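Next up, a specimen:

>
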Amino acid sequence: MKQVLPVFLIAMLMISCQHPAETGADKRVSFDDGWKFHYGDVSDASGTVFDDSQWRTLDVPHDWSVEMPFSREGTTANGQTVGGTGWYRKTFKLQPGDAEKIHRLYFEGAYSETDVWLNGQHVGLNPYGYTSFFCDLTPHCKPSGEENILAVRVKNEGKNSRWYSGSGIYRHVWLESTDRLHLDTWGLFVTTPVVTREKAVVQVVAEVVNETVKDRDAKLQIQIKDASGNVVGNQIVNIRMEAGERITPVQSVEILHPSLWSVDTPVLYTCEATVTSGKRVYDRLSATFGMRSIDFSTDKGFLLNGEPLKLKGGCLHHDNGLLGAASIDRAEERKVELMKANGFNAVRCAHNPPAPKFLEACDRLGLLVIDEAFDQWQRQKNPDDYHRFFDEWHEFDLSSMIQRDRNHPSIIMWSIGNEIRERADSSGVEIAAKLKGIVRQHDTTRPVTAAINDFWDNRNLKWEDSEKAFRHLDVCGYNYVWQQFEKDIKLFPDRIIYGSESTAMECADHWDLVEKYPCIIGDFVWTAIDYLGEAGIGHAIQVKNEEKDPPLFPGWPWFNGWCGDIDICGDGKPQLLLRNILWNNRKIEMAVHTPIPKGYRIALSYWGWPDEYPSWNWSGHENKPLDVRVFTRYPSVKLYLNGNLLEEKNIEKSKYTATFKVNYQPGELKAVGIDVGGEKESVMLKTTGVPEKIRLTPDRSQIQASRNDLAYIRIELVDANGCVIPDVDRKIQLTLTGAGEIAAAGNASPTDMESFRSTAPKTYRGKALAILRPDGRVGTMTLTVKAEGLPEEIIAVEIKSNK
C-alpha cells in the first residue's frame, strides 16, 4: 500500500509592531541599538550599581568572534575563531501609560548559554544558541520615567559546535509591551485547509489572553487582505473570558479565486487579528501568509498546488560569510537571492532554526524550506554541545521553533535531527516518537523528517539497522547514501525519500535517481553556500606523490568549509557548472584543471571538487597539455581552439561530461554541443589582457537609512575589454566617507586570513567584496578603492529614508 500524506497548507507569521500607542494595540519596538559590551567574564555585572561607562557601545546583531583575530586556540570546527564569555548592558525607560502593561524581551537568538537580569533580578535563561525566546520583565520593571537596567551574559565556551556558531547577541532583540487583554505573539496560526484556484478556506486560530483580574467581554475581528491591501474576507466573533483565562477561537473565512503561493509566484496575503472591548482596541497582530497546498506520496512525489516539483536543494549554515553570524536583515535576504539566482528552489536549514528574516525572505522570494531543530539529542558530538541540555530543554526548544515558524508558507517539512548518534537504538526510537508528538501538538499540517546517515559512527551496525531510525518519519532524509535508494525502494515501497545531504562530486548519480523515481523527491547538496568553520572539508590540495593525503580538516590557515556551490562572496564555484546542466539551467559549460607540477598529485576531499575553473588564462604553460572538461546533456561535443577543431567526443551519459587534453595556447577555447541537425549551443573561454582598471558593481544603487540594510559592492580587476582577470591579484585599499561604515570586506579564499574582514584585502581570482552599512542617516556612502598601478575607482550608494 503506498503512503499518501495529507495535503499540507500553511502561512507566514509576521508580527506588526507599528501600531499607535493611543489605540492600545500591541507594541513591539526594536531593542537593537545602544548596548554596552564587554568581552570576558565580569563579577557583579548583573547588578544595578555596576559601572559600565568604559565598555564599548554597539548595536546588535553582534558577533564578537568574527571581530577578533583568528587564533590557533580556535579549532577547524569554529573556523579558527575564539568564543568565551561576553556581557551586554542596556538602560531603558517605560513610556508614560505603559506601567500597567505586560513587558517582555524577545531574543531572536543569542549564542549560546544566555542569562538575563533586569534591575539585578534574574529573569531568563536560554541554553540553546539558536532558539528564539522571551523574558518576562513585568514583575521587575520600574515605573514610567525611571531607569531600568538590563544585563545579559552570553557564554560560548568549550567545544560545543561542529561548525562556526558565532558568539553573542547575534540576532535581533525586541521589547514587547501589551495590554493585559491581548493576543499571544505566537498564538496566531493561519492555515488553508481548502485551496483551489477557484476557492480557498482560510482557517485562523488566534489565542486571546485575559491577564486582568476581571472577567471580560470582547470581540475578535479577523480580516484577510490581498497583496494590494484590499479586504477580501472579514469575520467578527464575540468572546467571554474569565480572569486569567486563555482561549483560542477558530474562524474560517472563504476567499474566492485566490492567488496561489509558489516558488515562481510567491503571492502573500495578510491576516489581521484585532481584539476590542467596548470602544477600545486592546491588541492587534498581523500575519502575512500564502495560500498553497503541499502533498507527498510515493507515486506522485512532492506536489505544490497539485503540480509535481523536484526539490533542487542545498543545505545552509546560518552564518553570513564576511559578517560572521550577525543576522542583518539584508544579509539574510541576499542569501535567498543567491540561491534563487543559481537555480535552487529549496533549502535545508542545517542544523538548527534559522533567523526569522531568512524565513521571511524565503516566503517573499519563493524558496522552499526544511526547518531543522537539532544536531544532537542525548549523545554528544562534542563534549560541551547541546546534549547537556537536551533532556530538560528539548520540548521547549522544539516548541519554540514550531510556534515561531509554523505560519511560513515556504516551510514544507519539520526536521527533528541530523545524523543523530542514537538514531537506531531503543532510546533514539523512543525520542523520535516523542519529538514527533511535540511537533504534532503545534502543527499537523506538515510532515516530520530527519537526516539519517550510514553507521560510520557505530561500526557494530549496518545499513539494515537504519529501519529503526526511519520508523517515525513521514519523509525520510538520506545523508550520503544514495547507493541505498533503489534497494530501499524495493524493501520499503511506502517510503518517501530525499537526499538530505549529498556531495558535489556525486551530484549526477544522485540527480539521475531523483529524476527516475517519483518517490525520491529531491537532493540537498552539502552545501549551497560556503560557510565559516569545518575548515577545509572541501579541499583540493596539491601534494607530492609520495606524501600522505592531508587530514579531512587540513588545519591552519583554513577557516572556510570550501564545499559550497557558491563562495562566501556570492560567486558560483566550478561545481555549479555541472549542477547547471543537471537542473537544465544551462545547456553547456566548461572548466580547465589547474596544471599539476611533475611529481605532484591532487588530494581531493570527498566534499571537494577538482581544482578547475572556467578560465583560459594559463600563462607559463604554453604548449603543455591541460585537462579540459565539458558538461552538457548533448550527445557529443566539439572542441575548438582559436577557430581550429581539435576533437569531437561523445558525452559520458552517467556523468554528463567529456574530457579533453589540450595543449595550451592563448586565445579562445570553444565547446559546441552536437545534436540532431549539427552544432547547437556553445560556451567559450577567452584569454584576458592585463589589469587596466578596477570595476565596482553595487547590488543596489539605493538602500534604506537603516542599520538593517547593506550595500554589497563587487570589486573586480578587469582588462581593457571589461573581462575579469582570474590569474592576477592585487592588494586593494578601501576608504569610505559619508553616512555609513565598511561592515566587512574580503575575498572568497578559504585560507587568506589576512584578507578576511580587512579594509586592505587582496583580490582572489580577480575579485573581492565590500559590504557597506548605513549609520541611520539619509545621504550617501562613497567608497574609494585603490590598487597599485591602477587608477582609483569611486562609487556612491544613495541612502534614502526608510519611512
